[in-house]
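Continuing from the previous page...

OK, I double-checked the sequence for ZIP family zinc transporter against my notes and this is the correct one:
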Amino acid sequence: MPDALIAGALTAGFWGLLGGSALVMGAVVAYATSLPQRLVAAVMAAGSGVLISAVAFDLMDDAFRQGGAMPTALGFVAGAVAYTAANVVISRRGGRHRKRSGTNPAARQSDAAGGAAMAIAVGALLDGVPESVVIGISLLDGPGVSLVTVAAVFLSNIPEGLSSAAGMKAAGRSAAYIFGVWGGIALASGAAAVVGNLALAGAAPSVMAGVTAIAAGAILAMLVDTMIPEATDQAHEYSGLIAASGFLIAFILSRLGD
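Thanks. Re-ran it with the corrected sequence; updated structure tokens here:
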């Protein structure tokens, strides 16, 4: 394997791990402190806005420029359908409320004694992998990683880890389980970035566009299913304004990176 390819893959792994480490940071904060639930929801709303901006102005825009409308549209729909199908399976096994903080009795994670630990862990992995693959791909489209994409993933992962870890703690799960899940997903994020970088090195523009759009579709489906409900459940009428603020910040960052 050429040295340049190895170096690119290792760089992708570093940035993917960095983005995934924000999940651990959020979990640490949730486990060590008892934050007001409206603050948790507000941070979740801001993270949702950041990721929506990344999907619209980075992922989909890049996919369209690389491969045109057809690969982008097909990939986007495929990503949303694939995520939804996998999420349905995981939800039926107890992972439905894996990103919820646990304050709403109707949207709590399954109790530690309920046997849904694996479904919650797999569901969290399902939510994080598409973002990391995009980070790995972004290194193939220029001289360096897309810092805007990394920033969007990092900023959105903090509230994800924060809310979900709070829900795990409320459900009675141990510190070993909580940090084992998020530490493992951080490592998996690095690995996913490496795989994305290696698998698509030298791929045709239409293939790159399709894979980028698949990730975009999966991320948007994840947002609507897991992050936005938690934000609106606690932040109520302010969640839209907070999400719009996160969107605007990410949009400005993406334009400054042009």
